[in-house]
């Protein structure tokens, strides 16, 4: 029987066979990732992130560099004590003091390893270490042997392996295996390698180094040329069974191999790659957001998997296809990764079908004449805003039908701010059903907090304020800011956006839009007065 189109589309997403490789995911967000300029974490933040990493299903967590500071040591120690279901790696240079600190910090871990590194490339040896190859090999031997006195599992990294002569890499790997190293990491420290070169290095070392058949091989790739994920996949093809990653690809310079990109490449193409991981993909989005917030590193709109645009479509052709069958223009299910479903983004390339569909989601049904009027208004607004948010679309429908569809409308906002006092805010909101306008006041340590206190009184939806993103859309004194606010109720996230020269007003409008989306979606889902609310004919 010929397989269905749906079956053929999803053939690569089926479970890997028992013969396929299980790739261990080694996360170094809290060590290498934190080395990004400006990404420093407080010890308590590290612990919270480590808990989420364990929930994600990470095999090995590298919580930090214990010798670097007392706070770092304490964080590694607490994570080792608390997370008993995940292996903990203590990071150390090939120096006794580093090893002692790493061993002590990880003493209470249920499973632990010592992760030692030393440079291997001639440029590092000549200009940084100022040592000969023989001296470096002897140091590596001695320090692996020293570490083996304390721990059974030792990972050895030949730093800058991708720029090191193949024969010397093999010599160094043989030496540390002989002293008890159990995991061999061949890093592309500068993100220099091409995939075919990197994969070939793994094959050559595994074939040429005595004892290579008794150890695991690991890849640690940086993204200077944008090849970290491709190189990691090449390493898997070359025999690596562990990949070192960071959340959001955070890390020195251009960052490391992105956890979410690598995992979803394997998950989506596991039949072609012949591998699988133990990652709980449903926690990917929350993990990404947590790290982005803690490190104050925004996620690029076009970032694969977790970027704002990764599962959004503006083109009318794409939108029409998606509404008919998701597989026409998507190869992954965002909701399986915990990403809210919002695949249709309305802009100047959107068509009537997408506008009609989005309004119907809020229970607003227009006749053909009204839909054409909304579409004409929409096109004008799209030229101005680029992306037309839901609250603006609903407002356009209200103008076209002379009916207020929004449950609440922000009529007025005032904020009093100063350096020596609490911020005081006042908002006036009109409620749809009664058409009454009411004014509320509130205070806060910042103007936005004061405004949100007012709006929570005005719109009692019982939702938690989840997130706020602010983006500048232009430069100069008349610059406009875009605010994106999300609220959460019952485990569901609702979002609203607004654009204005006043970022406080934009944030307030976005919050009201998010609450309106919650209320209108709930009304439509429950078949309330919003469902199939046929607008009056013109």
Automatic annotation (TrEMBL):
Q: Which residues form the Pyruvate carboxyltransferase domain?
A: 23-285
Keywords (alphabetical) are:
Acyltransferase, Amino-acid biosynthesis, Branched-chain amino acid biosynthesis, Leucine biosynthesis, Manganese, Metal-binding, Transferase
List the EC numbers from the record.
Answer: 2.3.3.13
Keyword Acyltransferase appears in the UniProt entry: yes
The GO terms this record gives for MF are: 2-isopropylmalate synthase activity
Question: What pathway does the annotation place this protein in?
Answer: Amino-acid biosynthesis; L-leucine biosynthesis; L-leucine from 3-methyl-2-oxobutanoate: step 1/4
Which top-rank group of organisms is this from?
Answer: Bacteria
Q: Known InterPro entries for this protein? A: 2-IPM_HCS-like, 2-isopropylmalate_synth_dimer, AIPM/Hcit_synth_CS, Aldolase_TIM, LeuA/HCS_post-cat, LeuA_allosteric_dom_sf, LeuA_bact_synth, PYR_CT
Gene3D superfamilies given in the database record: 1.10.238.260, 3.30.160.270, Aldolase class I (3.20.20.70)
Q: What family name appears in the similarity comment? A: Belongs to the alpha-IPM synthase/homocitrate synthase family. LeuA type 1 subfamily.
Q: What is this protein called?
A: 2-isopropylmalate synthase
Which organism is this protein's natural source? Paenibacillus artemisiicola
The root-end lineage is: Bacteria, Bacillati, Bacillota, Bacilli, Bacillales
């Amino acid at each position: 029987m010929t397989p269905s189109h749906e079956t053929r589309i999803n053939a690569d997403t089926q479970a890997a066979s028992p013969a396929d490789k299980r790739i261990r995911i080694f996360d170094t967000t809290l060590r290498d990732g934190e080395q990004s300029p400006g990404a420093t974490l407080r010890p308590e933040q590290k612990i919270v992130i480590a808990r989420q990493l364990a929930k994600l299903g990470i095999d090995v967590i590298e919580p930090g560099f214990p010798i670097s500071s007392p706070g770092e040591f304490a964080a590694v120690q607490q994570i080792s004590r608390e997370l008993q279901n995940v292996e903990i790696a203590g990071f150390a240079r090939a120096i006794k003091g580093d090893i002692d600190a790493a061993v002590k910090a990880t003493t209470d871990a249920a499973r632990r390893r010592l992760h030692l590194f030393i440079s291997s490339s001639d440029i590092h040896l000549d200009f940084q270490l100022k040592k000969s190859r023989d001296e470096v090999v002897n140091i590596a031997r001695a320090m692996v042997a020293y570490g083996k006195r304390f721990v059974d599992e030792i990972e050895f990294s030949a730093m800058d392996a991708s720029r090191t002569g193949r024969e010397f890499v093999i010599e160094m790997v043989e030496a540390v295996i002989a002293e008890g190293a159990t995991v061999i990491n061949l890093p592309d420290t500068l993100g220099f390698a091409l995939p075919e070169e990197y994969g070939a290095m793994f094959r050559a070392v595994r074939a040429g180094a005595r004892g290579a058949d008794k150890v695991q091989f690991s890849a640690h790739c940086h993204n200077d040329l944008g090849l970290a994920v491709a190189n990691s996949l090449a390493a898997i093809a070359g025999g690596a069974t562990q990949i070192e990653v960071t959340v959001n690809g955070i890390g020195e310079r251009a960052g490391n191999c992105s956890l979410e990109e690598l995992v979803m490449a394997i998950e989506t193409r596991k039949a072609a790659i012949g591998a699988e991981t133990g990652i709980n993909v449903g926690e990917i989005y929350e993990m990404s957001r947590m790290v982005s917030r803690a490190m104050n590193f925004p996620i690029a709109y076009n970032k694969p998997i977790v970027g704002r645009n990764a599962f959004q479509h503006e083109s009318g052709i794409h939108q029409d296809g998606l509404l008919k069958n998701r597989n026409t223009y998507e190869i992954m299910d965002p909701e399986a990764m915990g990403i809210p479903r919002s695949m249709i983004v309305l802009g100047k390339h959107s068509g009537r079908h997408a506008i009609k569909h989005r309004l119907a989601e809020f229970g607003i049904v227009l006749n053909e004449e009204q839909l054409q009027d909304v579409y004409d208004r929409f096109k004008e607004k799209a030229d101005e805003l680029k992306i037309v948010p839901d609250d603006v679309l609903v407002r356009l429908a209200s103008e076209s039908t002379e009916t207020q569809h929004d449950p609440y409308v922000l009529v007025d906002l005032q904020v009093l701010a100063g350096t020596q006092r609490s911020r005081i805010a006042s908002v006036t909101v009109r409620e749809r059903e009664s058409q009454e306008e009411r004014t509320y006041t509130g205070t806060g340590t910042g103007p936005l907090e004061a405004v949100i206190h007012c709006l929570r009184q005005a719109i009692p939806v019982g939702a938690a304020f989840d997130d706020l993103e602010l983006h500048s859309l232009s430069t100069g004194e008349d610059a406009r800011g875009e605010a994106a606010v999300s609220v959460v109720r019952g485990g569901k996230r609702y979002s609203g956006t607004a654009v204005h020269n006043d970022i406080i007003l934009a944030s307030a409008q976005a919050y009201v839009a998010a609450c309106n989306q919650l209320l209108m979606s709930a009304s439509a889902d429950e078949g309330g007065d919003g469902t199939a609310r046929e607008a009056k004919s013109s």
